[in-house]
Amino acid sequence: MAETEPAVAEIEPAVTVEDAGPALKRISITIPPESVDAKIKESFKTLGQQAQVPGFRRGKVPAALLEKRFGESLRREAKSQLVGTAYAKAIETHQLRPLGNPSFDQEAMEAPLESGKPLEFSIDIEVVPSFELPAIEGLEIKKPVAEVTSEHVDAELKRMLFRVGTPSRVSGPVGPGDRILARAVVRKEGAAEVLFETDRALVVVPEEGEGDEGPVLGLMIANLRGALQDRAVGDLVEIETTGPESHEREDIRGAKLLIQLSILDAEHITPAKLDEVISQLGLDDEAMLRDQILIALEQRRDMEQRTAMREQVYEHLLKTVEFPLPARLSSDQIVRAIERQRVDLLYRGVEPAEVERHLARMRGATELQSLAKLKLLFILAAFAEKFGIEVSEQEVNGRIAAMARQRGQRPDELRGELTRTGGIGEVALQIREQRTGDRLLDDCTITEMPAAEWNALVAERQRQAARG
Question: What is the arithmetic mean of pLDDT over 173-194?
Fold first, then answer.
C-alpha cells in the first residue's frame, strides 16, 4: 500500500504569542518539516499535471526538469501559502484582533524554503487594546439650554442670501468674503523640491467676525486675511507655516513650509435679494421663510446640544479608562479621524467653508489630542459591542439623505462623493458612535444649564488647556 502523504490542509504549526510593546503582539510560528515537505510535493504534483514544456506531453515532464525551470518560483509561492495559512490559524486560535497590516520578519521571509527543514518566522502585529469598561451610571451631565431668537434667524437669513448670491469676477483688490482661485505650490523651507502643487486652490478671505485665520490647502494659516486682503489677480502671495504633527502626510508633519499662491482669478459675492429667494423656494412670504429657518436652527441646536452632552461622557471615559495605545499611529487612522469629523460637521449643517476651517484646526491638533481621539475610538467600539449596537444600511441611507438636505444636494450625488472618498464607512461609524453615546447618556444624571454659562465654562477649560 502506498504511503499517504501528510495533508497540507491539516498543518498544525507551533505558535507562541508574546507582548512586544503597547498593544503589539509578536507571533512566533514554526511549521514542521513534514508539513513543509507535503506542501512542496503537492505544489510539484499540481505543476506536473498542468505544466506545458516543449518536447513533453502534459503530465510527463521529468521532476528534475520541473525543479530546474520552476523550482525557485514554486517554492516561493508554496512558502507564501504556508505563511498565510499559518498566520490566519494563529490569529483565529489565539483570538487576536489585528489593527492594520502585520510586519513580517524580513530575513525569514527572504530565506528559501527547503525540504526536510522547518519553516520558522515571526510576525509583529498591532492589536485592539484590552481594557475594562467603567460603570457610567449616575455620571452628572450638563445639558446646555438655549432659545433660538429672532437675532439668530436674522443672521442665518443673511448667510443664506450670501450663500445663494451672485458671484462676479473681480481683478482686485479682494476683501473679506471674496473667493480666490490660485495656483498653489508647497515646498519645505529652503528646498527646491515641490511637495504639492495644484492649479485650482480655492481660498476664501476670512470675513470680519471670523478672526484673521483661515484654511489654505487644509492647513490653518494665521493672519490669512492680512496676507490676502487688497491683493489682486496676478499677485504672488507667499505664506510661511509649519506642518501640523497630526497631518495625514508624514512628510508634512512638523516641517517648515512655504506656500506660494499665484492668484489666477477672484470673485465677489453679491447677496441675493430676499424676494427672489422666497420665490425660488416656492414660499408665500418672508414670514414663511423665517419659520423654516427657525425650525432648521432649532434642529441644529438640538444636535449641538446632544453633541455637547456626549462630549462630556467622552471626556469622562478618557479620564477613567487607561490602556496602552498602538505605538505606530498610522496615517490611515489620522485620515479616518479627519474624515469622520467632516461627516459629523456636514450632518450638523455646518457650512462647507466652515467645515474646512474646522478640519484645518483638527490637523493642527497636538499629538496628545490625536491620541485621545484614537483612544476614544477603541472605548466606544467596546461599548457598542457590549450594547449590541449595529448600523443598518437603511440608517446609513437616512443619514446620507439628511446630510444631502443640509448641503442642498441630491442624496445620490452625496453618496457618490462619499463613495469616492471612502466616507461611507465613516458615516456608519459616526452613527454607531452617536448611538453608543446616546445609550451611555441614558444611564447618566442630566441637569440643565443656560447655554451662555456652558459656553463660558468650555471657553475657560480651553484657556486652561492652552496654558498647560
Answer: 89
